[in-house]
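Input chain follows. Return structure tokens only.
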Amino acid sequence: MRYRRSDVPGASYFFTVNLAERRKTLLVDYVDMLREAMKKVKQNHPFCIDAIVIMPDHLHTIWTLPKDDADFSKRWGLIKAMFSRCLEKTERISTSRLDKGERGIWQRRFWEHLIRDDHDYERHVDYIHYNPVKHGYVNRPTEWQYSSIHRFIEQGSIAPDWSGCNKIEGEYGE
């Protein structure tokens, strides 16, 4: 089955990518392996990570792709595969995954949203940075170490006391 996805070369996209078992904490337990997988994939298939938050069982990110490229699915497939190969095989694997020779680390699909304009972009960046508060891991976005909010503060794009208290609504794939 081919999923209907936006494929606009050079566009910015918001993604939500989840572990198959949402109670696991693999993404923060092995955050360095995840970062390394992203770094290696970026070397052969460039993209810019505009914003990101890595949660224990899912992540949100905004990528901007090269002007002649829209193949984010390939990039996610490579990142997921590379990260999975680094982990010991301890996960529960369904019969359908076994039949296809798949691991059971990641949900097969991911949520993708084509960023439409500057307001949409800002709204999704805010959502990314507020996500650890939303899930109750911290009281303030700056307390979460696996977030691009620290880079945004360094660059002066977000105030150091930004709390994200403004109401963040919409579809984000969670």
